[in-house]
Specification:
Order of helices and strands: HHHHHHHHEEHHHHEEEEHHHEEH
Distance between the termini: 89 Å
Structural class: alpha+beta
Radius of gyration: 24 Å
Strand order of the largest sheet: 3-4-6-5
CATH architecture: Alpha/alpha barrel
CATH topology: Glycosyltransferase
Number of helices: 16
CATH class: Mainly Alpha
Strand content: 5-15%
Number of strands: 8
């Protein structure tokens, strides 16, 4: 009768390699599944507009605006100014307005803060860079100018959303808002390309989408009929501003319709968000082009900046590019993904946002640590964007 030690030795011989293989498989599964679960654990709540998540980020922006008010009143400490200040206050106003539309019971808390944020986006120091570029011409002080001054669409849209939500919206701001919209409507109707310049000779389709959004919201507030100008804008976007091959909008153009930059995802993503206030069908077309830029790995998604056949470097619009991936475009894509019901895409994009944004809670407040004030203002607007903006 043979000794059993031979089979036992053979079993031991294969046990260690088998353990290594099992260990590798388990490690791969953990690496593939744990991060996507952890970073996506709040995605469904954000998609559904869970009050705890929404209010936490809203309160973070309330804290920012309250501190900003204190600094302006006392002169203690620096305040945001320039393009970043304009964007922070505008997006805070938009986000809080969207929160109030979805949760009307919070209007008493957020409407006054939202209106103050919108008003601050009009301060001269917020547009100093643009005024300097226009050789000292302040677009708000010269609304009869033939120049586009499309950057004023950002405060114009913020004012419109605040006026829509806040029953105590100040009459002087309403008068200023009406005058700004009248000026934009006149300029846009006579533009054969549907473009208005932000800087002399430089037009950004994204900024003009914000012009259209501001005009549309003004109509919703006042009952004014802006159908003609919005139809003209949408027709010219489709004919002039969208690259046919990629479905992306051209990032920069001349007011004559000539291309100054490539079709890019960051501009398209923000344009899709703004277009959602004015023309839902066009916003969905822009979103379709944007979503073609999605790149996914292990359940995480990000947006590639340049369309096929184009290449370039990152800038303040796209943020730093990593293997062509745009941080900004990835965040912007959250808004149309939620607005147009792309739950799975929203979840994949949110995982990436949570991974790199590092969401943190402090009491009743929630913030994304790496984004700073501007990142949190943007995310409040994009994470609360919904299907009821254009109506």
């Amino acid at each position: 009768m043979g000794s059993p030690t031979g089979p036992v030795r053979r079993l031991h011989k294969f046990r260690r390699p088998l353990a290594i293989v099992i260990g590798i498989v388990v490690a791969v599964l953990v690496a593939g599944l744990l991060p996507r679960w952890w970073c996506g654990r709040d995605a469904d709540e954000w998609y559904r507009g869970d009050p705890a998540r929404v209010r936490g980020l809203a309160e973070e922006m309330v804290a920012f605006e309250t501190e900003d008010d204190h600094r302006r009143a006392t002169g203690a400490g620096e305040t945001l100014a320039g393009m970043w200040g304009l964007l922070a206050h505008q997006m805070t106003a938009l986000g809080l307005a969207q929160v109030c539309l979805e949760h009307p019971e919070w209007r008493g808390r957020y409407a006054p803060i939202m209106t103050r944020a919108a008003a601050k986006s009009l301060l001269p120091e917020m547009r100093a860079e643009f005024t300097a570029a226009w050789h000292g011409q302040d677009g708000l002080a010269d609304l009869d100018s033939p120049n586009g001054h499309a950057y004023l669409s950002y405060p114009a849209l913020a004012l419109g959303m605040a006026r829509l939500v806040d029953p105590a919206f100040p009459p002087d701001l309403a008068f200023q808002h009406d005058a700004l919209i009248t000026s934009y409507e006149r300029r846009l109707l006579v533009s054969p390309t549907g473009l208005l310049d932000t800087f002399p000779g430089e037009a950004y389709p994204t900024d003009v989408a914000a012009v259209a959004a501001a005009i549309a919201v003004h109509g919703r507030v006042t009952g004014a009929d802006h159908t003609a100008v919005l139809a003209h804008w949408a027709q010219r976007v489709r004919a002039v501003q969208i690259d046919r091959d990629t479905g992306l909008v051209l990032q920069r153009m001349g007011v004559d319709g000539r291309m100054h930059d490539a079709p890019r995802a960051s501009g398209t993503g923000l344009a899709a968000y703004f277009a959602g206030f004015a023309d839902r069908a066009l916003a969905e077309e822009l979103a379709t082009g944007l979503f073609r830029q999605e790149r996914s790995v292990l359940g995480f998604s990000a947006i590639h900046e340049y369309g096929d056949g184009y290449d370039g470097v990152g800038d303040m619009d796209s943020g730093p590019l990593i293997l062509g991936i745009s941080v900004s475009a990835t965040g912007f894509a959250l808004a149309p993904a939620r607005s147009f019901g792309h739950r799975d895409m929203f979840t994949r994009l949110f995982r990436t946002t949570d991974l790199f944004g590092l969401s943190l809670r402090s009491g009743t407040r929630l913030r994304f640590a790496t984004g700073g004030v501007i990142g949190n203002a943007l995310l409040l607007a994009f994470l609360t964007s919904g299907p009821e903006l254009a109506r």
